[in-house]
Automatic annotation (TrEMBL):
Domain of life, source organism: Bacteria
Keyword Signal: no
Record bears the keyword Cytoplasm: no
Transmembrane segments: 21-40, 97-118, 172-190, 202-226, 238-254, 274-294, 306-325, 331-351, 358-378, 407-425, 437-457
Keyword annotations: Membrane, Transmembrane, Transmembrane helix
Source species of the chain: Comamonas denitrificans
Name of the protein in question: 4-amino-4-deoxy-L-arabinose transferase-like glycosyltransferase
Length: 561
């Protein structure tokens, strides 16, 4: 016998967010951060360098590398997607922007799959609100749509999604694949054909993106859950189990054939740092998720009869465990966001008015102060008033000249005006839908991200791209230096040299390459080297990065060119 649900929702409380507003909100969030910026340091630039190398036929598709340099990030699919985009789209377009197009689609896919997964979960009989004696309770489909809207707002509101969700890396591919797997597990009852298709492809994509262990663990959990269900209402249960079992076998075979296994657990964990990361990364979804666990605690005692809770909760626990066993904690924690947003959505029908008001006030204060800070710093950099923020920027970024960009200013003004309208709407007295408590967090996160990617984008590009460092390097070498060797440079650094210059870059310091110039990112190690090959080079200059004097490249010239 199933326990009564704690959700008490009237039909008047399940109004949908207008689809046009929801699409604009998601579209702005996706475009901001992908469009208009240069490739950023390390992860972004490494992926782009290997995508170009694949598109130009300079490396093997099953083992991408740049000369002798192997990538530090796992997976293959992220490089394939960018390389295919560069090959198939017009060559007149900038290839760094082209390489981001598939990742824009992946972020949109992650958002859409999360919405659809919660929509499927909320339609399940165990998730329905209490029936009223004289009618008037929420209609199942309207109720499911309102909860799905709330889950999408919760996902957009998570602070950790902003930067990592806009990188051209394996992390975003894993996020989209995991969201598709979440959709498949949640919609077997409602869309068996599409869910089966996603159940087969998503684990393969997750494995190709560098997480075969997680893919197989999640598929195994779904199979175990289907095997444990004891109800005659699922006549296709064994067919679904066979389909998921086939996906498991294919994932294992693919991972073994392509040698995708790379299990490595960290030897030491900084628990204090981990607690801080967990606190802000999924804010404000995690407090709502904990509220869900408290209000639905009696239903959780019957997990097999409450799939609307056990599916997202099982995914949340599995991804958290994977994060604890992964050296890349930030990237692994990104994969918890679809599940935690789904769990948080089921807090909305049980949320007390006082708790909703507290969330609104905290959100309003935090994002308004953050937006004002971004505007004040931009005004200071542009006009010199107030003086202190501009002085701090000048001290941290040597040589930075702030440009004035009217289009970025217009976008920032429109985003700020939309925020004021949202605040005015939220503070009016009206019958709001159950997702109302997540409107301000989602809108505030999108506002902050848009302001950063418009007003602060030139400063961020100056600090996070390789362009200013390479511009200083170009002033040291002759205009046509011929080939330039590198020693101790990463794939991202070599890729940046190839992208920002027309030099012939040889990523090796072997004696076989007869170049007149050499660049190393390890001046101390080079100068401490006493081998005969190092003695052939004469140090010319240390080139410092404008925003970090500890990051320097040593330029050397061959003694006998």
């Amino acid at each position: 016998m199933s326990l009564p649900t704690p959700a008490i929702v009237a039909q008047s409380a399940v109004r949908r967010i207008p689809r046009s507003i929801l699409l604009v909100l998601c579209g702005v969030y996706i475009l901001a951060g992908f469009v208009g910026r240069a490739p950023w340091r390390e992860v972004d630039m490494q992926a782009f360098a290997l995508m170009r190398a694949l598109a130009q036929g300079q490396t093997h598709w099953l083992q991408p590398q740049l000369g002798p340099l192997l990538p530090s990030d796992p997976g293959l699919l992220q490089y394939w997607l960018g390389a295919w985009a560069i090959q198939w789209l017009p060559a007149s377009w900038s290839s760094d922007w082209i390489a981001r197009l598939p990742f824009m689609g992946l972020l949109a896919l992650a958002l859409a799959c999360t919405w659809r997964a919660v929509y499927g979960l909320a339609r399940m009989p165990s998730a329905q609100p209490v029936s009223f004696a004289f009618g008037g309770e929420a209609h199942p489909k309207d109720y499911a749509c309102a909860l799905a809207d709330g889950a999408l707002l919760a996902l957009l509101a998570c602070l950790g999604l902003a930067q990592m969700g806009h990188e051209t890396s394996h992390r975003l591919v894993q996020l989209a694949a995991l969201a598709a797997l979440f959709y498949a597990a949640s919609n077997l009852r409602w869309q068996p054909l599409r869910a089966g298709f996603a159940a087969f492809l998503a684990p393969q994509a997750l494995a190709l993106a560098g997480a075969p262990e997680l893919a197989m663990a999640l598929v195994s959990l779904v199979i175990a859950g289907l095997a444990g269900i004891q109800t005659p209402k699922l006549p296709q249960r064994f067919t679904w189990m066979a389909w998921w079992a086939l996906a498991l076998v294919c994932t294992f075979t693919l991972s073994k054939q392509l040698n995708l296994w790379h299990w490595s657990a960290p030897l030491q964990r900084d628990w204090a740092s981990l607690a801080r990361l967990l606190t802000w990364f999924s804010w404000p979804a995690w407090p709502l998720a904990l509220w869900t666990l408290w209000r639905w605690r009696r239903q959780l005692a019957q997990p097999l009869q409450q799939p609307h809770l056990t599916i997202p909760l099982g995914l949340w626990i599995a991804t958290l465990a994977a994060m604890l066993l992964n050296e890349d904690r930030d990237g692994a924690l990104l994969l918890t966001l679809p599940a935690i947003a789904a769990v948080a959505a089921f807090a909305l029908p049980t949320l007390r008015r006082s708790l909703g008001a507290l969330i609104d006030w905290l959100t309003l204060i935090f994002f308004t102060v953050s937006a004002l800070t971004i505007w004040v710093v931009w005004l200071s950099v542009q006009t010199g008033w107030p003086a202190k923020p501009a002085a701090n920027v000048a001290r941290l970024s040597d040589g930075y000249q702030p440009p004035f960009e009217p289009f970025a200013l217009a976008m920032a003004l429109m985003a700020s005006a939309a925020w004021l309208l949202l605040v005015a709407w939220r503070t009016r007295r009206h019958r709001a839908a159950i997702w109302k408590s997540l409107a301000l967090p989602a809108g505030g996160t999108v506002l902050g991200w848009v302001l950063l990617m418009t007003l602060w984008l030139p400063m961020l590009d100056y600090g996070r791209s390789y362009a200013p460092h390479i511009a200083r390097l170009q002033n040291t070498l002759p205009a046509q230096p011929g080939c330039v060797q590198t020693w101790g440079l990463s794939i991202a650094q070599v890729g940046a040299l190839r992208w920002h210059t027309d030099w012939s870059i040889v990523p090796t310091a072997s004696a076989a390459a007869q170049c007149d110039w050499l660049i190393t990112a390890n001046p101390d190690e080079w100068q401490a080297s006493s081998n005969a090959y190092a003695a052939q080079w004469l140090p010319v200059r240390n080139v410092l990065r404008p925003t970090n004097r500890d990051d320097q490249w040593l330029v050397l010239q061959r003694r006998n060119p």
